[in-house]
Amino acid sequence: MKISIEHHDRDFNVSLSSKEGTQPFLTIKGCRIVDGSKGPFVSWPAKKMESGKWWSHCWGSELFNAAVLEAYTASKPAAKPKDEAWQARQPARQDEDIPF
Description:
Elements: E1 2-8, E2 11-17, E3 26-36, E4 39-43, E5 46-48, E6 54-56, H1 62-75, H2 82-89
């Protein structure tokens, strides 16, 4: 089985296929990695009910969750340093020279 990760800011999708290069037979959207008291873990999609309790949409075994966490870590895009990220959001200056 091949586990593929598709990153979307803080969330990610987990896709399962029979082997590399084949179409996924299952995709779980809206997963997250959460830093818990015992270390990071996969937070599967859930919905908060009127009672205040959370209802999980899916569940993964410890071994599967570990494999997803490993695939996530291996595919995680490199974070830009803060200065680079800030600079990328700034509008381009038309003229660097002050005319006076």
